[in-house]
Structures are given as structure tokens and as C-alpha cells.
Amino acid sequence: MNRTASAHWHGDLKSGAGSISTQSTTLSDTPYSFQSRFEAGKGTNPEELLAAAHAGCFTMALSLQLSQSGHPAESLETTCTITLEQKDGGFTITESHLDLTAKVPDITKEAFDAATQGAKAGCPVSKLYNTNITLIAQLLS
């Protein structure tokens, strides 16, 4: 299976601008720029897209882990924060932090923790990232 996305850019880094599109057309000529990445400008940015990918992948992987253990989730809400820091004269993604709130009927804390750790380690996006991945998981009763 292959999925594609494309980026178009014109101009220099600070005053230029571009657009990002995805194969599914969910993003179609979605604007991005220096301002949307490093300031508060309108549009998306690579780190926001990475955060969306990790939140989505982890949540789907957790849904699978829970279902396979006989505890399908009532709801899973995940927020991912990607940290971009300036280091050694360039920029580096130093962390992907997952924050989960879950409603899973009739599951023990041990089984829930095992499922969340399995999903964190096993989701394909986690495997792609070469950075520190942290997780805070809250199980609601």
C-alpha cells in the first residue's frame, strides 16, 4: 500500500509560501508558510501534520489492541504534541507526546496499560519516528 502527498513552494523561506495536497484530497492546495510553521500564520505546517498522523495511528492501533483483548473501547481521544527545537544550528523534532483519555468498559488498569504500551510501540508512525515518544493515558470509569 502506498499513500502520497505533494508540496509546492514558491519564493524564499521567509516571504515565500506553498501548498500541500494529499492523494485523498482531504488536503487540497492547503496553504503553508514560514509564518504558519514558526509564527502564528494561517495555514498548516509539517509538525502539525506529523502530530495528526501520530494521534490517528496510535488511536487506531490502540483500538485494535483493546478489541483483540476482548475490551473494545467506548471512546478514545488522543492529542499529540510534536516538539520542534533549535539545536546545533538547525531544527530537530525532539519529542512526540501522546495524551489519551479513554473509556473502556470492564478493563483492568493492568490490561489497559498493556494495550496502551503495545499501541505506542507498535503503531507504524511510532516505528517511523526516531525521537522520544511519551504517553499519558487516562482511563475514565
In words, what does this structure look like?
With 141 residues, this protein is of the alpha+beta class. It has two domains: 34 residues, no CATH class; 95 residues, GMP Synthetase, Chain A, domain 3, CATH 3.30.300.20. Helix content is 33%, strand content 37%. Strands 1-2-3 form a three-stranded antiparallel sheet. Strand 2 and strand 3 form a beta hairpin. Helix 2 packs across helix 3. The protein is elongated. The termini are far apart. The mean pLDDT is 95.
| Individual helix count | 4
Q: Nearest-angstrom radius of gyration?
A: 18 Å
Query: What's the SSE pattern?
Result: EEEHHEEHHE
- So what's the overall shape? elongated
**What proportion of the residues is helical, as a percent range?**
25-40%
Give a quick summary of the entry.
The protein is of the alpha+beta class and 141 residues long.
List keywords for this structure.
4 helices; 141 residues; elongated; 3-stranded mixed sheet; GMP Synthetase, Chain A, domain 3; alpha+beta; 3-stranded antiparallel sheet
Produce the secondary structure layout:
Elements: E1 5-10, E2 17-22, E3 30-33, H1 34-38, H2 46-68, E4 75-87, E5 90-103, H3 109-122, H4 124-128, E6 132-140
Parallel strand pairs: 5-6
Antiparallel strand pairs: 1-2, 2-3, 4-5
